[in-house]
Amino acid sequence: MKILIIGGAGFVGTNTVLKLVEERHEVIVVDNFYNSTPENIKRISEKTGCRIPHHKVDISNKEEISFIFRGYSKIDAVIFLAYDSSSTLSCYNSNITGLINVMSLCETYNVRNFIFSSTWEVYDNFQEEQKFKYALKIYNEDCTFNINSKPSVRTKQISESFLQNISESNKNINIIILRYFNIIGDNERCIVDGSKVGNLSTLFSQLATEPLNFPVMEINNNTRDYIHIDDVVDANLECLNYFIKMKNNIEIFNVGSGIGYTKLNLINKFEKVSGQRLNPNSFIFTSNGNKVIADISRIKNKTTWYPKRSIESCMYDSWIYEINRVNNKK
């Protein structure tokens, strides 16, 4: 397949590009390189021996992204990983205007398959969480969600609604929305420079090797669902296969492990698999705790995907990744 990856030089994007190239797909990468670097893609090209076209593009500028669709004929699928969480204006411009531009071009150039990366936070509402502070919440894809005040999350909610409307008006395009839960872990074969926001296993590994470079971290007692980056990549690739079997032209899938851990659980797991003791003075522990876990029965029942990597694997892989990173700097 010929696949256009929007936001393909970031953490999820780079790992996805590597797997797609290894499986002999033709990949085109578009990114504004705001939180990433072209070097991420160049390293994959060197590792695989495959040329990977990559372009610096602002998707909120329709002429810039139009150039890509005009230049590459017969794109089979788009994987939309672009995500801006900076200022409110930038967030809406990139996340909403950018998505509208890309989807408009998918219709113009008859791109039939579209994967959109969303987040579990579309379910989340701070005020609601305060009412049920210690209750366990297991989210399935049919859960309704309230308006979220965070621009980065609100734009995901708006994007999902927009894609639902597109699916109703255009039955020729297949859309899959993936709601990622908390992504952790690393792939030692995929060196990524740039932002890996929220990747706690990477952060713990860096704390073990460079403890003086980090401020004190607040560790709350929240229970969250964590998923290995390789399982997230596998979910995207499985969706490319699932397009052929889709009965409806839109699907929404949670992508998580279905298991909850606190951050203290993760610290203990990391210390066990790495043999490293993290400095307790690096953390301030707080007592608040709500519990959020993914119901992943839908994606497991409708596709062949399931999470294969354990929480120990997440921690171990990040530790090996960090050792290699530090050694390569020497």
Features:
330 residues, 42% helix, 7-stranded parallel beta sheet, 3-stranded mixed beta sheet, globular, Rossmann fold, single chain, alpha/beta
Q: Secondary-structure map with pairings?
A:
Elements: E1 2-6, H1 11-22, E2 26-31, H2 38-48, E3 54-56, H3 62-71, E4 77-80, H4 88-108, E5 113-119, H5 126-131, E6 136-139, H6 151-169, E7 174-180, E8 182-184, H7 200-209, E9 217-219, E10 223-228, H8 229-242, E11 250-255, E12 260-262, H9 263-274, E13 283-285, E14 291-294, H10 297-302, H11 311-329
Parallel strand pairs: 1-2, 1-4, 2-3, 4-5, 5-7, 6-14, 7-11, 8-10, 9-13
Antiparallel strand pairs: 10-12
Helix pairs in contact: 1-2, 1-8, 3-4, 4-6, 7-9, 7-11, 9-11
